[in-house]
Input
Amino acid sequence: MVKICCIGAGYVGGPTMAVIALKCPAVEVVVVDISVARINAWNSDQLPIYEPGLDDVVRQCRGKNLFFSTDVEKHVFEADIIFVSVNTPTKTSGLGAGKAADLTYWESAARMIADVSKSDKIVVEKSTVPVKTAEAIEKILTHNSKGINYQILSNPEFLAEGTAIQDLFNPDRVLIGGRKTPEGQKAVQALKAVYTQWVPEDRVITTNLWSAELTKLAANAILAKRISSINSISALCEATGANITEVAYSVGKDSRIGPKFLNASVGFGGSCFQKDILNLVYICECYGFLEAANYWKTVIKINDYQKSRFVNRVVASMFNTLSGKKIAVLGFAFKKDTGDTRETPAIDVCKGLLADKASISIYDPQVTEDQIQRDLTMNKFDWDHPIHLQPMSPTTVKKVSVTWDAYEATKGAHGICILTEWDEFKGLDYQKIYDNMQKPAFLFDGRNVVDVEKLREIGFVVYSIGKPLDTWLGVMPAVV
Ligand code: UDX
Ligand code: ADP
Output
């Protein structure tokens, strides 16, 4: 029986290992983590992450061939294949601060593997890492090898949160990078044999190590660039009377472009896009490719611009002041169908509203009050440290309240900001919401989920990203 151990029971490690266990009954999978709370949650009925379909998969294999444990060293010692899926935060100080990946957690995992191993191991990079990390890890392992053979593989994960289980069941491709030596290729085949239990062989791509590492960064950078591209056009739509939904639809009909990932929004979030682009920028700079670095930087600049443009629109529309006003925020997660708030645009938007002295009342179906308070008080980049090392918010933000109902959040509000595209926001009783709001009642849709015409009929003043402006919104000049 092949034994797999995954170090890191997070958004990537948890679902990926659960699906491997489900699809490969002959493989024993143990997911280990230093966070006792996280492992306890994986062993309970309340999993630590919300992901549609995940409960079902875990229920089917937990206790059979899927285990969650804090006994990191024991399971690393026993494993044939070790996936490493630990945090790779952005450095906040020193060389490369604000851009380069901090490999502290990776390095400590590699040293621990070297310490406890007594048999040959295949070590798989699962979390996204900078190009050439495998080489660094290889050095740590081989300099402490005691005669053990380590093969390092890069097997980046392409799942998107909210659709992780479907993405894992039916991936566009599985990418495995390895050394071109006979031992390296043997390791590649061993990992390939795991995936081909359910993934058609022609979807498993094998490359050299550096191609696999760079592909992950490139794929995320190109996806994020599509969003920044459409978001930059959304500003023009508002100014000219064009409609971003119509433009995106027609652009996407070109088979060379395709229809996906062209939804204008208040900005992209999530743990990967910004971090991976910063990483790419840093690598370009290190090799002296400053033009390439600047090119990728603009993707983040447009994303930041889109968030501040949204805040400016809210403030300018509401007579240039939010002081003494209540703003309801519907949705805090970085996208629908997840409780994840890492780099969510809601953080910057809420901070912008608070800076203009608004009181905000937040409702998200999956995000807890504690998480929201933590996010609004945390420093940039601090989110990517294991949860037990994250600071509890020292002073909760007094002007923020969190409710468990959209109607409660919007009661008595002067304006509403929709920041996540949760399906339930489409079906709300907006007449009821309007009746309970201050007038004029404003609604700012950062995800294009509402029916603008219907809401205008009710009486709302509506702003929707990239849509022709409500005549009202022309009243106050806006720096947008
Ligand atoms: C992303 C990649 O898609 C995935 O392949 C990789 O493994 C990890 O990073 P994820 O961040 O989970 O996945 O979600 P994704 O669906 O890519 O969305 C990222 C952000 O972009 C979200 O904030 C989402 O709302 C936003 N987005 C996405 C848009 O604003 N418009 C779109 O058209 C698509
Ligand atoms: P991702 O989205 O990439 O899965 P997460 O932050 O959700 O990232 O998960 C990373 C996990 O890795 C965290 O639960 C953290 O506690 C764990 N971790 C970090 N370093 C180690 C380590 N040295 N040994 C075991 N687990 C670790």
Remarks:
- The chain has two domains: 2-199, 241-474.
